[in-house]
């Protein structure tokens, strides 16, 4: 059995991928169990003693001054879940739902939330047995955390809502019954503990950041393919150039480009055919490297967030304090996910310009639109239209969501992050860039076919051969969207990275 152990403090993005996409199970460590139980004991004591605590013996938001009796605390928690289930739009994919469940489990395992261990174990059991709540994508403003989407998650825990179980969409109670999981009756603090946090927006953004990191490698591969097709000049990637401007991502990208193009006889040296290349070839390390550095920065911030307590109020068992704060506010993630969208969008921008360079005979020295009998055939004319449309859409999507705020809860919650929108935009930009890179790979493979394939570097030859396994050389016009989809799947699966690494060793 493949397991990720949860202690609230050491989760990584790779762990998220294992659970979200590779069906690893999760287990609490003994230490985290002790911390959860200690915080719950304090909540029980305070409720028993009739102490006034936000969200436990009071209402929520503007109703924080309304006192709730001990007898009404269960109803208060249930009503919180029911009232917050206001999501709209398409449901999140199962990998996002699994990631969000994992992140909430990890936050609760820190022991600052006051949840019962039995309730936390129910959420763990749902994740391990594959009960995936239907969570609509839209409805969170990113403060107080992801109340709305997380409420849809909890709805299934209490035998309501809907879930996917073994590929079937069922009502929540039926899904839980088929999986053999008992539903929960929430008690004091538990509803708030389960929904007051940034775990859904962080799940979306964390998956996009991981995929974006992989996309930087695919971008280097695509650029190397275009270099081969256009007889690009490799001198611009010389390490001496990059050591005098030592941005880490720039140096690593230049190293990748030289490794991928090693022993190529299609690329050229400075002065052999021309003095220098256009920026889209010459400045690959500077552009790809900047996006790489941005994504690394974003991942550092994600690593902090996924091991943080984002509840309100927080339960400090050692000092016997319950403190209302603002850790649920999504601004730290909203800003970086806006940045993530911009960083990934730039990989698409430069790729689309390389596509244009490949198909334009005045720039490439190759047949117009990479097809014989031009005029009768349009060749690769319109795939570039599609790439242009996608990068143009990305320019709209890259507008930051985090600079917007609409007050909620009658101005009690008077600044919100819109972090869930930032995360979803980054994910959507990523999808567009995957398609743009797929078009570049397909186009560069066609350009290479006008030269001598035996002059290719070992790595690019392997990539070309893999593309040609699914997509034939274009001799006359055909339905290009089918070819584009096949190349998209190669990009999304990261198969091309593995193919290159099998030939030249690990890419940066």
Please describe what this structure looks like.
The chain has 508 residues and is mainly α. It folds into two domains: 3-197, Fumarase C, Chain B, domain 1 (Orthogonal Bundle), CATH 1.10.275.10; 205-504, Fumarase C, Chain A, domain 2 (Up-down Bundle). Helices cover 56% and strands 6% of the residues. It contains 20 helices and nine strands. It has helices at residues 13-22, 30-48, 73-84, 94-108, 117-129, 147-157, 172-179, 190-195, 199-229, 239-243, 248-260, 279-282, 284-305, 331-359, 361-364, 381-397, 419-448, 458-470, 480-493, 495-504; strands spanning 3-6, 25-28, 88-91, 131-133, 136-138, 162-165, 168-171, 314-316, 321-323. The strands form four sheets. Strands 4-6-7 form a three-stranded antiparallel sheet. It has a two-stranded parallel sheet with strand order 1-2. Strand 1, helix 1 (13-22) and strand 2 form a beta-alpha-beta unit. Helix 4 (94-108) crosses helix 9 (199-229), helix 9 (199-229) runs antiparallel to helix 13 (284-305) and helix 11 crosses helix 13. The longest helix is centred in the middle third of the chain and has 31 residues, at 199-229. It is elongated and about 85 Å long. The mean pLDDT is 94. The modification 2,3-didehydroalanine (Ser) is found at residue 144. Belongs to the PAL/histidase family. Pathway: Amino-acid degradation; L-histidine degradation into L-glutamate; N-formimidoyl-L-glutamate from L-histidine: step 1/3. GO terms for molecular function: histidine ammonia-lyase activity. It is found in: Cytoplasm.
